[in-house]
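hi support,

uploading two proteins for the ticket. first:
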Amino acid sequence: MRAVVFDDFGRRPEVRGVEDPAPAPHGAVIRVEATGLCRSDWHGWMGHDPDIRLPHVPGHELAGVIEEVGPDVVNWRPGQRVTVPFVCACGRCAACAEGAQQVCERQTQPGFTHWGSFAEYVAIENADVNLVGIRNELSFTTAAGLGCRFATA
């Protein structure tokens, strides 16, 4: 797949071919239809986030279509339209059990803790907890910006 990749912090990223992601047993791969550019992406690119490992694909505001799910995913199937929160939860820790997924002890963040949405496909862990369905009436472009807002809503 094609992706925007940076090899060094603060250096010009480039579009290049990288390996397609595969879903974790409890995860999903989403075909990215729209992605946003956020100030947080700039901070990551500049090296302000210790979670980022190089080379890296940024991007955390996204919407798309489920391409593939892992064998342990129960609630989702390929072809469904989805977006994701900026803070993705594990679904199993004390914070998640209390309904406070935005402060999950084992949270992941697309475009920070793992490769993000500046690519044709992105892998999301714990799909049953993190995917948010979007209606056909809502454009992918509009839905892509919602993920940053879920954690603070």
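and the second one:
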Amino acid sequence: MKKFLFLFFVVLVVFVFGCATVEEEGGSGKVASSTASGTLVLWNFESNSTDGWYGKGKWANACTVNSDSKFVKEGKYSLKIDAKGSKGWNQDIALNDGPFSGDFGNLKSITMDVYVPETSMKGLEYGQIFLVISGSANSWYQIPQGLKPGWNKLVYKLESDNIAGDIWHIYFVFNSGGDFKGPVYIDNVVGNF
């Protein structure tokens, strides 16, 4: 009987540790998962929260959670950024103070799904979201991507020299030729190694 219990215990321990997954700290104090495919989920909003994203000053209430499936690419939630009235360069609309993954400096790119309703861009000459990373390697490292109505798959290629070391803040800076007329939705912010 003792041999049976011992064998049962060994099998149980092997099973428990064999099913464990590796996770590391993510960008918002939540857990970001690292997968064998070379990706790091930074923010997916599936905790029904903004995952640490917030607006500042006049834009303090700009970042909220969206549950309307029409504006979600994967899962149940996305980040809704109320950009109505945002014109020109707006670095106060969406910021994140971390903490950020220790692997952040090893990323080669960041991708995200962005939905822009046609009415939100009506009358704009152009619309952009700059990914801005502020840290010890570079206090203001910015990469632009253009927007169009509908779903956008934005890819921000990173230079490792500009993101090495401590990361202080990350911004989604909105830039436009004219006033945004409504919200923009962000989902699946993923780092790629």
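thanks. also noticed: Residues 45-192 form a domain with the Jelly Rolls fold (CATH 2.60.120.260).
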